[in-house]
Write a structure and sequence with these properties.
Number of helices: 3
Strand content: under 5%
Radius of gyration: 33 Å
Largest sheet: none
Order of helices and strands: HHH
């Protein structure tokens, strides 16, 4: 009688183990899909924000270009009262080139700070999920 009970308990244990493995597989698949969806959503949100910022830079550049043209004309005309007109234009051009160099270096720094565009929250979530699964697997072995 005892061996029949042990066989029955063993069959129930195997069925439970099979069911647990099936659940683990389904839950792992669902979790992986959810993590991918989270990564997609995060990248879409960051992309939208970056797109709006780029559009604003474009508008600022257009208006800045016209303003810079007017300012350039005013600076050249003002300097032309003290020096030759060609020299006044050259001085203004050198000043603008120096400003452009400084802005380019600052822009490069900002772009480097923004890269790489990685879905940080999704990556952290995956790492936590893996750690949790490892912990549960170790606990199950004990």
């Amino acid at each position: 009688m005892s061996s029949t009970t042990e066989r029955g308990a063993g069959a129930a244990s195997e069925a439970s183990l099979a069911e647990l493995v099936k659940q683990l597989s389904e839950q792992s698949s669902r979790l992986a899909r959810q993590e991918v969806e989270l990564a997609k959503a995060e990248l879409a949100y960051k992309g939208k924000r970056a797109g709006i910022g780029v559009g604003m830079f474009g508008g600022a550049g257009a208006f800045g270009f016209y303003g810079l043209g007017a300012l350039t004309a005013a600076a050249v005309l003002a300097l032309a009262t003290a020096v030759a007109a060609w020299l006044a234009a050259l001085i203004v051009a050198v000043v603008f080139a120096a400003i452009a160099g400084v802005l380019a270096l600052q822009g490069k720094t900002k772009v480097q700070q923004a890269t790489p565009p990685v879905p940080e929250e999704a990556t952290e979530s995956v790492k936590e999920d893996v750690q949790w699964a490892k912990t549960k697997a170790q606990q199950a072995r004990q």
